[in-house]
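User: For a benchmark we're assembling, each entry needs the component sequences followed by a predicted structure for the full assembly. Here are entry 17's components. Please fill in the structure.
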Amino acid sequence: MRKLSTRRRHFLALPALLAMALLLTGAAYAVVAPDSATAESDASVSQIEAGRQLFVVGCASCHGLNAEGVTTAGTDGEPGNYGPSLIGVGAAAVGFQMETGRMPLARSGPQAPRNQQTYTDEEIEQIAAYVASLAPGPARPSEKDVDWQSVDEEGIARGGEFFRTNCTACHNSVGAGGALPSGRYAPSLKDVEPIHLYEAMLTGPQQMPVFSDEVLTPQDKREIIAYVKTVQQQGNDGGIGGGGLGPVVDGMFMWIIGLGILTGFAVWIGMHGTRTTKR
Amino acid sequence: MTKDVESTVGDPIADPGLPEHQYRPQDVDAKFERRTERQIATMFGLATLLLLGFCVSYFAIDSDVRIFAFGDPSSGTAFGGWSAQNFALGGTLGGALLLIGVGIIQWAKKLMGDHEMIEMRHPVRSSDEDRASVMAEINAGVNESGIARRPLIRNSLLGAIGAMGLPAIVMLRDLGPLPHGHTNTVWKKGMRVVNDVSGTPIKPSDLKVGQLVNAEPAIFFETDEDGHPVMHGHEVAAAKAKAAVILVRMRPEDITPAKGRENWGVDGILCYSKICTHVGCPISLWEQQTHHLLCPCHQSTFDLADNGKVVFGPAYRPLPQLPLAVDSEGYLVAVSDFPDIVAPSYPELARDQKKLDEKFGGDA
Amino acid sequence: MSNNTFTRVEDSPTGKKLAGPVGWLDDRLGLAAAGKKNLRKVFPEHWSFMLGEVALWSFVVLLLTGVFLTLWFVPSMGLVEYQGSYKPLYGIEMSEAYASTLNISFDIRGGLLIRQIHHWGALLFVAAMMAHMLRVFFTGAYRKPREINWLIGVGLLSLGMVEGFTGYSLPDDLLSGTGLRFVDGMIRSIPLVGSYIEFFVFGGEFPGEAIVPRLYIAHVLLIPAILLGLVGAHMLLLVYHKHTQWPGPGRTNENVVGYPMLPVYMAKAGGFFFIVFGVLALFGAIIQINPVWVYGPYNPSEVTAGSQPDWYMGFSEGLVRLMPPLETTWFGWTFTWSVFLPAVGGLGLVFTSLALWPFIERWITGDEREHHLLERPRNAPVRTALGVAAMTMYGVGWAAGGNDIIALKFGLDIFAITWVLRIGFFVFPVIAFIVTKRICISLQRKDNETLSHGWETGVIDRSPAGGYAERHAPLPVEKAYALTSSREPLPELESERPKKADAKGVRNPKYRKQSLRHRLREFYYSGSVDQPSREEIEHANEHLVGADQHPIELGEDFQGISETGVPRVH
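Assistant: Structure for entry 17:
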């Protein structure tokens, strides 16, 4: 019984929490400022040089002094990949990998996880300029490319079609992520900056395939981003969403919470209540 | 009459009988009784209020109002986003139902008589006399009908009733057409491979190494002179369930084509069926570095650099490959339909595959 | 009201009011004779007896909410362009079934709530049936004379699962369509006739346009009607046999002790209906289920990561995931074992063994008596252990059905999980069997210990020699009776195995059957210990005396003994 009554109290406390959350929301919004990332088409020589310096210190141990990559003996007779070559990956790859904190890699594992950004925005621009100078590769998308707010309703719906065709198989229909072989995974798309969504499609980081601008045009990509952002912002109409993981989580809820509560009620119904020695 | 409901034999302890009844505070103290009465009536009263609240919420809350908590909805980090209407309607209804339920049970537990009662069981089995008389009656019935003595009538009747099943089965025939179309898809020689959703044709130069394109045959996007689609509705769905493909581009040196498949790709671009050979889920979880394609439904994994070979999971057949070429305008096209059967296996598969092999045998 | 002085019914206010209608009805239906027997029918009380009630009430909730949904749901695969108020799908071409589901979720006020209650109710319905079935299994409540009711229950469970699956498939969203695609693959794998059944079920090539209307009529009419009939039969038999009860003082195999149907059980059961409905309504209000709008309309070339069936199909799904590839061609026919065996065979095995178990057990034990007292799981170690082993096997299949979610959430290798579960499917149940059986037997021994040496009072005596010992007191007779009364004395097993031929050399025609049964009986009873005899207990109690040679008196503060044999404290 005690358990049940606390549950009810929580339940009633929600409106109070909502009011508090509104206050917090205001405060939080002031802190979050969208960082601008503009494509530097013609990077200055000094910027490239600064980027090279940073590269040699921070990246060359894995990717090679000239970003040519480091291969190892590997397994099964195939050459292993210690750090892949970065020639031709373009500024977009550098931006994605470093701004989402995947690079520099803290320790080797099946896959580089998302992390805190360790380099400053300026340093990342410099390294990106250096890598871009090695060979032509995809540049960082412009602000207009990722301006998903400008997409109209029809575009959002179309973005949904692209998303379900190209993305949900790995990333799940609400972008909750999914499992891949050998401990790898398609990461969650929650709270990912639009520019990084764009760059991921453009460069195909790690196991993710490339979706080039020729096949999925910048407009298509913008629509996809608009759909993802719209769906994530609208929240879960029906209540607690279970992380968008679907029926497995629902089944667990019902067995543990649902049947648990009802068994609690059954125990209460079957219990002998307070008795008295009187009479 | 030996089979009575018998006591379990050999109980080592004699039955002490039901313990003495203990009274509840409500039974002996009118103050408790009145308090419980008030408590229960309050619950029913609250339930009524909640149900009125349900009606008010139904009319007062707009269906597009959402409740957010903890954070900023516009950044997608906020918790909640629940429909206010759903929450209010469900909360009031659930609350009211719980209060009614708890109130009724409280009434039963605290105020209704609670002296335990004893009811005796009787053996399920009827008495021997009853059994004997039933047997006698069945016997009389059987004899009077002569069902045992007139096998001709009996058997012909059984036959007629058995034949009644035939119309029932025959009638099911028109549930659907006879199986067809397992062996072929809409792909044919020269049909362009176009991007799904947008329908844009694809040039080899559009694809980078490591690229994946979820593609379809161009016919899904073609229109006739009047601008109507050539295929529509369920035709498209049924065709898609077999003809959907993925294009992937790998470094040509990574690919180990089987004999006869050396020229099925264009500069490392290969085209495979998107339909899993296990139970038909569309697969596009392609790992560009390992070249493995994973099915999200049952984790069958195919190696696209190695002719779609199964490397893990329950699928048995490799993923069928579509031979590719480039047309006069430089766009990717199919050389033919799939030389292997796409989609899940079925009983006639081996025979159908044999026919396909004969058809493609010459030029594969 | 503790008014024990009886007034004649004709003189009581209720009697005066009801006499007329009751008389009117009885004149026409003659129900008084049946009512006399059943209105005050006694039901025993225990929380575990209410699990089946949860299933019953969730079924009622399903009927109520389901009727609401039919008012707006359009069971058609005809294509329309969505014009409703869910913007991210605006203008997309979809089936009417999916569009009307979106309509229910966004444009019918309260529609989302009803949909969510209905779906949660379905999950609860099957879960409660299964929990109820486990209770019946582990307490031996299916034994004679209740085997037929057990069979009805097995039928209800299997139909409930089919009913759930047909409902899951109706909205024609990407998830339910993927489920149907799986069913299509499964049907194709049926040997020899698979393609024909596929085309007849789907009305042509998958997906066709017939499957949703066909599933709909099965979901709202055919299966519910059968379910309703079976539920009725289940309840009738329950009333006819009278409910089983736990052993205790005054509770024997020949009686049933509890509260009368009118008014106590009517109130408790009725109240419980409101509670089940209330909990489901709160689930519908607070926890989102099956958000079809994020899945999108079904499209045979799309899929989402984390595609799963609802939990009750998870076991079957898991077996399909665990199965290694296997396909053979015999006489030109392809047999797709890797789908057929786990999908069709797995469920078939579950339900066949469930249905046969009561008869198998009765054949092994040869027990022909009626049982109305429940057996504690520890007192039937092999049954309990088999049950736990089966649950383990089911659990492995179930876990495999969510292996991708496990891999994602715990950062594990999905192939490694699959391999562990492939092996575990055969190994874990064996371990579970051995461990459970040992635990049961240990508990039996502990019961014997308590019976013959009394309960541990927690009072430590110091002997004149300086040694310490805990004082034991004889078990209160009520408790001792409850411990012993449902426990069957072990049968005397024939020490000699059946012989192939008798002394004169005549062959025993039933040798194989007898020998198998003999071995199974030995297995069934092996390790169990008999409870102490009356003499042993009496003898032991005489020894449980204090230093003054008087039996230990239990003080005023004695509160009885809990389930585990420990004295209660206040």
